[in-house]
């Protein structure tokens, strides 16, 4: 297991290295002069020169890359061009707020999605199963910004239960904090729960037909133990992989949701950076997102190994 | 038969499944009983209802099944009248079951020991610790060396034979009175099967277990069962003591089944298959359900269903008495002795020289190793598996070369290299003198026409979205052999060649039975008029009566078209039946090769000898073999792939002579000009292989 973890970690590092090159080369492959593009076409030559100097655009490409990547390794994320502030704390704060949204969402997605999927899968063909299936199709097929807008109209405009936008820190009290994140989280979770529950359902149905389930019943085990001990563990293996993919979807969703609810997280910061053509911030932001995604997949791989002894112990025979 | 209450008594059991608005009768009036300590074989082909019977006894039927009539008495208690909860508590405690496929019957995510302990914790209320100790004791009882290690292992770390032993241990955990076994050895190699059968025999003796043994294999029944009950389409057609039923069968179906069996001892004869196909249970034929396929059918059979009658040996046939001494008729085309064997001097059609295939294991990151010896410190050094390791063989035009070996020995890889579905890593294949491995482009395409392949599983080797006609026509158009009207005529001719009516061209594979599908596969392979066909376990997935039919078709085609086959099988009886020459493969290499008649007689390679000894065949009843002593191979030996030296069979060889076998590769012993054996034991000693005598037919 330790060797496996180390191997996976090496893979993650390799991916990040490759991605950093790709992200860095944005400055190299953008058409025209990057500095000119950033400052706009009406800028003076001096302004362009100043930007070139700040971004060290006159150095050879590999020197620029090494300086940029080296900075990251030392915790120096560079400086925002528009706000003229170090990017580290800026991105850190935004990420912490996004992480709250993402963390709560992914936990809810996992718990509700798996529970619904198992419930429906075990009761295949019953009314409960059909209800869950139809419901999840509905939630999968409607995009999340639609729910976001609908929720704002209903709960904020009509009922007035939740604030429509903004963010409150925990210092302002738990309820204030909670009221600000209910709608964003609900929006994020709706589609993904449907996704996870559908997959868990089909995986559960398949597992329940496996020979070892019949064999477990032949031992005289009651049905709830057959499901809990024998079916669940095996049925969850594909779900874990999908949860990791959903972390990627979630980050896409966060960008949308943070924009709609004016929630000051990483997604909104990235949109801001893109609008303002703040190149260092774009690069740093994307690299952070990439790292989060790679680490989520690492976590999924490790969980996968935990559930699947074939990975944990290789295939050598016991002797 | 004593007066004591039988352990299991099934009385007139009828069982139905919903099908297309009506009910499909899967079991009809099935009755049998099993006394204490006795083993009953429930025999039949796929679809006969034998597994359904087992599930009915266990109470594990699908919820939509209904039982309109009959009783199942377990020790006098009527199981069908019990509440579901009471039946559950009997399962695993007093009635246990072992399933067909050990590879899928163990939960892959739970340690083996815990799975064995489960029923003990449940029914005996043992603590986890006590149950674990008992689990290890059970593993020991079923003959597993080092039970502590196996108990801690996960299923994927065990071989098939060990898994099946572990499953038997699970079934025995609570000392049940009745053990239901559903094809417990079908998925295993024949040497492993022999060990499992030995184990079951011993357990029955030691524990006084009663067994319901479900199988399609009459040889296994002969080996292990006291009584036998033959099922056909959900009806009992014949039942009685094994020796009576198998050696003096009364029902035409039983006679037909026995006539369909290929036997090592009778390799000259063509098999006598049962014509027709399995009835559709949704609309069964009137009268006797077997009458559409029966040779002896008379008017009465079509109208009135016969009843099972007779004391002891019972049969359900109107004409059983008058046909008592009439065997199932042999097919008209007899004895292929008339056909001249392949000309030994003719230039070989296929030549393999030092043919080898190695696979690298694992991914890039798994195989990076630190290397301190200097230079770049990381090395990419994947372990290699030698699937095929230097095979040199020839096949003459029109010759059938049988290739036999256990699963994983590399026989399929070898077959696939001959048609270049797999690229060899070393050595060469010549077909008609041309180096097949070097060809490319047009020349390769042209050569593919000459060499074709038939796959094991007809269900997955035919495209389900194409009609039979399209499937067979595909190679014709691909090689530009026919077009337009000519194409239809050719397809019809090919179907006729494998004895399928031309109307089948418009059917889809799922509308065909297994045997019919395989015949379509054969027709497809024949379409290009090949000189050579690789038959990769081509009949292994088929029921015996169908298998006999397909074997006959293959033999006939060989005689008519002079096609050569590489006939790959794990089943030595089938190989013995069809092959002119036999090559025995073990762990990637040929260990014995020669004319079939010589390979099946001493001198044997020790491995061939063990294979022959392991075959459960009708005619080799437990009694007749009692004094002979069977050869048993150790199946649980783990052999590291990195072959250091010596004979590859050394770890399992019952005749190993010493250090020599571990250090030096065995030399070829030339038993006759065409017969060679790779062994250190001198020929004179190999000849004294009195342990195996070919079975004399009763």
Concise overview:
By secondary structure, chain A is an all-alpha fold.
Tell me what the structure shows.
The complex is a heterodimer of chains A (319) and B (698). Chain A is mainly α and 319 residues long. Chain A folds into two domains: 2-73, no CATH class; 96-318, Orthogonal Bundle (MetI-like fold), CATH 1.10.3720.10. Chain A contains 14 helices and no strands. The radius of gyration of chain A is 24 Å and the shape is globular. Residues 315-319 of chain A have low confidence and may be disordered. Chain B is built from 24 helices and 25 strands. Residues 334-340, 621-628 and 691-698 of chain B have low confidence and may be disordered. In chain B, a hairpin with a 2-residue loop joins strand 4 (66-74) and strand 5. In chain B, helix 4 (112-123) packs across helix 5, helix 5 (128-141) packs across helix 7 and helix 11 (252-260) crosses helix 19. Chain B is α/β, with parallel strands linked by helices. The A-B interface holds A 7, 10-11, 210-212, 214-222, 229-230, 233-234, 307-310, 313, 315-319 and B 58, 60, 88-93, 96-97, 99-101, 104-110, 118-119, 122-123, 146, 149-150, 152-154, 156-159, 167, 170, 365-366, 638.
Compute the number of strand runs of chain B. Answer: 25
Order of adjacent strands in the largest pleated sheet of chain B: 19-20-21-16-22-23-25-24
Q: Tell me, briefly, the overall form of chain B.
A: globular
Rounded to an integer in angstroms, the radius of gyration calculated over CA atoms of chain A is 24 Å
Uncertain segments of chain B are 334-340, 621-628, 691-698
Mean pLDDT of chain A: 84
SSE sequence of chain A, one letter per element: HHHHHHHHHHHHHH
Percentage of residues in DSSP E strands of chain A: under 5%
The major beta sheet of chain A can be summarized as: none
Number of domains of chain A: 2
Structural class of chain A: mainly alpha
Write down the Rg of chain B: 27 Å
Main beta sheet strand tally, sense and closure of chain B: 8 strands, mixed
How large is the count of helical segments of chain B? 24
- Our count of helices of chain A gives 14
The proportion of residues forming helix of chain A, as a percent range, comes to over 70%
Helix content of chain B: 25-40%
């Amino acid at each position: 297991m330790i060797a496996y973890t180390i191997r996976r970690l090496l893979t993650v590092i390799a991916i990040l290295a490759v991605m950093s090159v790709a992200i860095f080369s944005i400055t190299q492959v953008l058409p025209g002069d990057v500095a000119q593009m950033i400052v706009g076409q009406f800028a003076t030559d001096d302004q362009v020169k100043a930007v070139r100097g700040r971004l060290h655009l006159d150095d050879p490409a590999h020197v620029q890359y090494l300086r940029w990547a080296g900075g990251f390794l030392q915790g120096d994320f560079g400086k925002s061009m528009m706000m003229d502030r170090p990017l580290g704390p800026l991105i850190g704060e935004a990420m912490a707020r996004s992480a709250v949204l993402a963390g709560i969402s992914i936990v809810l997605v996992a718990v509700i999605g798996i529970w619904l999927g198992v419930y429906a899968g075990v009761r295949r063909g019953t009314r409960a199963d059909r209800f869950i299936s139809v419901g999840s199709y509905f939630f999968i097929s409607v995009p999340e910004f639609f729910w976001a807008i609908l929720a704002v109209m209903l709960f904020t405009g009509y009922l007035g239960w939740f604030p429509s936008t903004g963010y409150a820190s925990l210092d302002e009290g738990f309820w204030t904090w909670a009221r600000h994140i209910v709608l964003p989280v609900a929006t994020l979770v709706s589609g993904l729960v449907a996704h996870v529950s559908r997959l868990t359902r089909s995986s559960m149905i398949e597992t329940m037909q496996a020979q070892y389930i019949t064999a477990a019943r032949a031992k005289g085990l009651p049905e709830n133990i057959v499901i809990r001990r024998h079916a669940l563990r095996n049925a969850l293996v594909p779900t874990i992989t999908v949860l990791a993919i959903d972390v990627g979807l979630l980050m896409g969703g966060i960008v949308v949701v943070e924009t709609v609810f004016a929630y000051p997280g990483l997604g909104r910061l990235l949109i801001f950076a893109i609008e303002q053509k703040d190149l260092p911030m774009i690069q740093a932001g994307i690299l952070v997102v990439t790292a989060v995604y790679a680490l989520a997949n690492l976590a999924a791989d490790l969980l996968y190994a935990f559930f699947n002894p074939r990975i944990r112990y290789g295939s050598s025979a016991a002797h | 038969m004593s007066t004591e209450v039988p352990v299991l008594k099934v009385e007139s059991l009828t069982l139905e499944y919903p099908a297309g608005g009506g009910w499909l009768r899967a079991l009809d009036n099935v009755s049998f009983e099993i006394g204490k300590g006795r083993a009953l074989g429930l025999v039949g082909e796929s679809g006969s209802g034998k597994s359904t019977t087992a599930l009915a006894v266990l109470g594990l039927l699908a919820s939509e099944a209904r039982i309109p009539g009959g009783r199942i008495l377990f020790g006098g208690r009527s199981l069908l009248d019990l509440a579901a909860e009471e039946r559950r508590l009997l399962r695993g405690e007093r009635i246990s079951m072992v399933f067909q496929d050990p590879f899928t019957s163990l939960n892959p995510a739970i340690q083996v020991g815990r799975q064995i302990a489960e029923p003990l914790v449940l029914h005996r209320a043992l603590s986890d610790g006590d149950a674990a100790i008992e689990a290890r004791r059970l593993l020991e009882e079923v003959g597993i060396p080092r039970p502590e290690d196996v108990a801690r292992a996960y299923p994927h770390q065990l071989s098939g034979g060990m898994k099946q032993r572990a499953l038997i241990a699970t079934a025995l955990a609570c000392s049940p009175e009745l053990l239901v076994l559903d094809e417990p050895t079908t998925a295993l190699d024949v040497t492993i099967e022999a060990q499992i059968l030995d184990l079951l025999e011993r357990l029955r003796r030691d524990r006084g277990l009663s067994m319901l043994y479900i199988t399609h294999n009459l040889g296994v029944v002969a080996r292990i069962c006291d009584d036998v009950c033959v099922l056909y389409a959900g009806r009992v057609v014949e039942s009685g003591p094994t020796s009576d039923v198998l050696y003096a069968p009364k029902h035409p179906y039983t006679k037909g089944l026995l006539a369909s069996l290929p036997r090592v001892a009778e390799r000259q004869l063509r098999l006598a298959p049962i014509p027709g196909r399995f009835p559709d249970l949704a609309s069964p034929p009137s009268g006797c359900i077997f009458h559409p396929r029966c040779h002896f059918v008379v008017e009465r059979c079509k109208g009135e269903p016969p009843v099972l009658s007779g004391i002891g040996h019972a049969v359900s046939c109107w004409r059983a008495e008058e046909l008592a001494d009439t065997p199932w008729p042999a097919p008209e085309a007899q004895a292929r002795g008339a056909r001249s064997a392949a000309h030994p001097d003719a230039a070989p059609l296929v030549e393999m020289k030092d043919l080898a295939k190695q696979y690298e294991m694992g991914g890039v990151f798994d195989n990076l190793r630190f290397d301190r010896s200097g230079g770049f410190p990381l090395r990419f050094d994947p372990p290699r598996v030698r699937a095929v390791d230097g095979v040199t063989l020839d096949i003459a035009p029109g010759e059938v070369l049988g290739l036999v070996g256990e699963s994983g020995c590399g026989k399929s890889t070898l077959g696939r290299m001959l048609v270049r579905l797999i690229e060899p890593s070393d050595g060469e294949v010549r077909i008609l003198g041309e180096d097949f491995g070097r060809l490319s482009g047009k020349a390769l395409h042209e050569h593919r026409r000459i060499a074709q392949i038939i796959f094991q599983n007809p269900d997955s080797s035919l495209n389900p979205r194409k009609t039979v006609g399209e499937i067979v026509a595909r190679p014709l158009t691909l090689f530009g052999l026919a077009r337009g009207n000519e194409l239809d005529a050719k397809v019809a001719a090919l179907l006729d060649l494998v004895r399928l009516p031309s109307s089948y061209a418009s059917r889809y594979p799922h509308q065909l039975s297994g045997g019919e599908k395989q015949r379509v596969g054969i027709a497809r392979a024949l379409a290009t008029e090949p000189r050579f066909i690789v038959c990769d376990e081509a009949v292994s997935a088929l029921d015996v009566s169908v298998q006999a039919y397909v074997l006959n078709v293959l033999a006939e085609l060989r005689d008519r078209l002079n096609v050569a086959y590489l006939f790959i099988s794990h089943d030595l009886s089938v190989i013995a039946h069809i092959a002119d020459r036999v090559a025995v493969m073990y762990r990637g290499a040929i260990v014995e090769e020669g004319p079939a008649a010589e390979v099946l007689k001493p001198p044997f390679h020790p491995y061939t000898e063990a294979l022959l000894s392991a075959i459960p065949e009708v005619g080799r009843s437990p009694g007749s073999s009692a004094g002979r002593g069977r050869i048993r191979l150790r199946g649980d030996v783990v052999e590291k792939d990195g072959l250091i030296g010596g004979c590859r069979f050394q770890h399992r060889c019952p005749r190993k002579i010493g250090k020599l076998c571990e250090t030096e590769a065995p030399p070829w012993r030339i038993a006759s000009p065409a017969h060679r054996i790779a062994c250190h034991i001198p020929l004179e000693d190999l000849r004294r292989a009195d342990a195996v005598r070919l079975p004399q037919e009763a």
